[in-house]
Amino acid sequence: MPYTFKQDHFKTNVRFIVGYSAVAIAAFTFYADRKLGWEATTSSWVIAAVGSYFILNSLLTYWVWAVEASEVFRGKRKSGETISIRSSVKKHTPLYRLQIQYKSASNSVLEEKEIVSPFTAWFSADGTFHPEPLRKWLANEINVLRLAAQETRKKTGGVASVVGVEETENKEVKDAKKRR
Questions:
Q1: Contact 105, 81 (CB under 8 A)
Q2: DSSP code of 68?
Q3: CA 62, 84, 117, 155 torsion-angle sign
Q4: What ranges does the record list as Basic and acidic residues composition bias (predicted)?
Q5: Whole-prediction pTM
Q6: Which of 110, 67, 63 is nearest to 86 (CA)?
Q7: Of all helices (H) and strands (E), which one includes residue 148?
Q8: Burial of 148 by CB count in 10 Å (0-12 exposed, 13-18 middle, 19+ buried)?
C-alpha cells in the first residue's frame, strides 16, 4: 500500500543497548560482591564499573527525556516521507494529546498539528480498550492516514477501514494460491 509506514526502531534500539548495558554492569558488580565479598570489590575495576553504570544511566535519562521526548511512533514510507507522533497527558485531566509531524522526503513539513481527545472515546467504563474508535479518530485528524483509510475502504469495498488490512489479505491470498 502506498500509505504504509515502516516503523523506525533506531531510538528504541539505542535505549535498549544503553539500558541493558547498565543493567549488565550492575548485575556483574552485584555478582562479584556476593562471590568475592565487600573487601575484594573495592578495587579499581569495580570503581570503574560503578562509574560506567552511572554514566550509562545518565545517558539513558538524557536519551529518554531529550532525544525520544515522548515519541510513541516514528515511521517512514517507501517514498521517503516520515511521520513522528508524540504523546502527552497532563496530570488530573482525561485528555490525550498527540503532536504529529509529517515530513516530505526533502525534510519539509507537510503537516504539523496537535490533536486532543478524551480517553473515554476509546476506553469503556470498565477500562476495556477499543482500538477502532482510536483508529477512526487518527484517520479523521491526520491527512495521510485519512487518505490511507479511504484507499483501504475502496479496495475492500468498505468491509475494512484499518490501514494495512489489504497487505494482510494479499499475504493470505498468496499463501492460499501457493497451497493449490
A1: yes
A2: I
A3: negative
A4: 168-180
A5: 0.74
A6: 67
A7: helix 143-156
A8: buried
